[in-house]
Design goal:
Keywords: Signal. By secondary structure, the protein is α+β, with helices and mostly antiparallel strands. The chain is built from two helices and ten strands. Strands 4-3-6-1-8-9 form a six-stranded antiparallel beta sheet, with no helix packed on it. A four-stranded antiparallel beta sheet has the order 5-2-7-10. A hairpin with a 2-residue loop joins β8 and β9. It starts with 5 loop residues before the first helix and ends with a strand.
């Protein structure tokens, strides 16, 4: 498999995240009959191995968003630090590896989504481990090893 220039891959990754966010926005237009049963809190934890190298061409994008039934955007905490609105993490934050990154909704929300996109254009494989919980129930838990030339994309509705 032939891989293009890193800037082309970056644009592709950003396009995938935008598509995921648009699909979330469009699905958020429908209103449930009993919204009080759909109040959620989420916690996402993940780690990226120390073989991740932005300089070698590795790419990483993470995003989380949520809104209440009145469409007010929910704030999040990134490792205990409050972030106003949606959370976005990229290559710079995880370069060289990061362990135990925690993203947590500050207040309950009605609709939400989480997305991961990562690729390896470099030579050394790297590993991403993540757990997504909503209302203390594990939605998904994975360990993904990305070898040279591979790309991983996954989005979740919360």
């Amino acid at each position: 498999m032939k891989i293009g220039k890193p800037n082309v891959m970056t644009h592709l990754l950003m396009l995938l995240i935008v598509v995921a966010m648009i699909s979330f926005a469009l699905s958020a237009c429908a209103k449930d009959k009993d919204e009080s049963r759909n109040i959620k809190n989420s916690v996402i934890t993940f780690s990226v191995s120390n073989t991740f190298s932005k300089a070698a061409g590795d790419h990483f994008i993470f995003g989380a968003e949520g809104s209440r039934d009145d469409t007010t955007i929910v704030d999040w905490k990134l490792n205990g630090r409050k972030i106003a609105g949606d959370v976005s993490i990229d290559d710079h934050y995880v370069d060289g590896g990061k362990s135990n990154i925690t993203v947590k909704s500050v207040s309950p929300f009605f609709r939400g989504s989480v997305g991961f996109t990562f690729s390896n254009i470099g030579r050394a494989p790297y590993t991403v481990t993540y757990t997504i919980k909503t209302n203390d129930i594990i939605i998904d838990q994975k360990t993904i090893t990305i070898s040279s030339g591979e790309t991983y994309f996954k989005s979740y509705s919360l």
